[in-house]
From TrEMBL:
<keyword id="KW-0853">WD repeat</keyword>
<dbReference type="InterPro" id="IPR036322">
    <property type="entry name" value="WD40_repeat_dom_sf"/>
</dbReference>
<dbReference type="InterPro" id="IPR039328">
    <property type="entry name" value="WDR89"/>
</dbReference>
<keyword id="KW-0677">Repeat</keyword>
<dbReference type="InterPro" id="IPR015943">
    <property type="entry name" value="WD40/YVTN_repeat-like_dom_sf"/>
</dbReference>
<protein>
    <recommendedName>
        <fullName>Anaphase-promoting complex subunit 4 WD40 domain-containing protein</fullName>
    </recommendedName>
</protein>
<dbReference type="InterPro" id="IPR001680">
    <property type="entry name" value="WD40_rpt"/>
</dbReference>
Amino acid sequence: MDIEERPRKVRRLAPAPDCIAGQLVSKARLGRSGTYVLELAAFDSTFAAAGSDKSIRTYDSATLKQLNAIQGKANVTSLTGSVWPAPVLCMTSDQGDAVLYDLRTGAPGGNLSLKSARPGAYTCGAFDSHQTQIAAGTELALHEAHIDIWDLRAAAVVHTYTESHSDDITCVRYHPHRRHQLFSGSTDTLWTCFDTRLSDEDDAVIATGNEGAPLRSMSMLQERLACLTTQETISIWDLAECEVLDELGDVRGQTEQGWQSHHVIRADVTADAVQTWLGTESGEFVVARQSVDEPDAVLATFSGSHSDIVRCIHHDVASDRVKLQSTIRHIEDALLMY
């Protein structure tokens, strides 16, 4: 498809009639004074948090009790988890490799270390739904950014895609229902869908799209793809037609009633909308619903729990609890809360 930038339209948010105020239930501190949380990865009954002190800690999701701590030697660049058939954590770091941890063993050195044979450190990773493959994207090095597809059963790279992106790869995600389809996003503003059963890149590329801004993250459901960019813009794509369904535009400063957002924490596509988590520089945030056919609405507000920017959220839908990560640099420690 042709690559071209698209104009952005402005959206505004208003509180829904049944908008609620979230309540703090519990909190825990991560590490020593000055430590803050970089990434979160969630599992069935536990979650992992990566700290700026190069540690990874696991917690009980119900109580926030710390279960284990792994002290690393490198700064974490991404953290992702897979729950089936076993709870496995994948960490990428500025040392360049991807390290896998089986959370049942708690091995401090990791259970498997994956390092690319080509230049460029891994910046992001993703498991397929059967935990037999992991895709790892790299930074730009020697004019190349690439994606390695690892077969975890053999601990070997089966495919490498080198031509689809021209800058750092910022996110990779497997389709939740089509395990052979891998989506990647990059600083070069493009997202690409690969068929990982194919080694030839020209044949493997199924679709590509241009967001017009560097991509931060992606969320997908069936034939719907939501892309979040570093300019705090969100677009929803129809994957079947490879067309934009809706452009939510720059959401910063778009709420009414005097509340203004500073950044998008995360965006999750739903069957008929996108659920966004919007934060301020002082640690407040809201949950909003934005769709094509209905007015945008703020569903819940959260304040008083943090004093600095919230950068990551995990929403436990089953219990309706929220795990938060924030960069608390001005008080003693980072806080994990629900």
